[in-house]
Design brief:
79 residues; mainly beta; OB fold (Dihydrolipoamide Acetyltransferase, E2P); single chain; 1 helix; 6% helix
Length: 79
């Protein structure tokens, strides 16, 4: 369920950081202004609650707002 003004994009985790923060590189199927951009993302509460682990190289789906495209929230790990 998306909030108004939030859009989802896919990317690949490149680096694990402390406090469930990750650097995610956006893939080429994203909008042109976000293509190959590296974004700082945090893990959503639902993924924390279910102990979903992420490693560098995992494909993920991130939510971002158009107001700040340098930050995002990881909501799903793709298979």
């Amino acid at each position: 369920m998306n909030n108004k003004g939030v859009f989802e994009i896919e990317g690949v985790v490149t680096e694990n950081l402390p406090n469930t923060m990750f650097r995610v590189k956006m893939t080429s199927d994203t909008p042109p202004d976000l293509k190959d951009k590296i974004v700082l993302c945090h893990l959503s509460g639902r993924m924390r609650r279910h102990f979903v682990r992420l490693l560098p190289g995992d494909r993920v789906r991130c939510e971002m707002t158009p107001l700040d495209t340098s930050l995002g929230r990881i909501v799903y790990r793709l298979k």
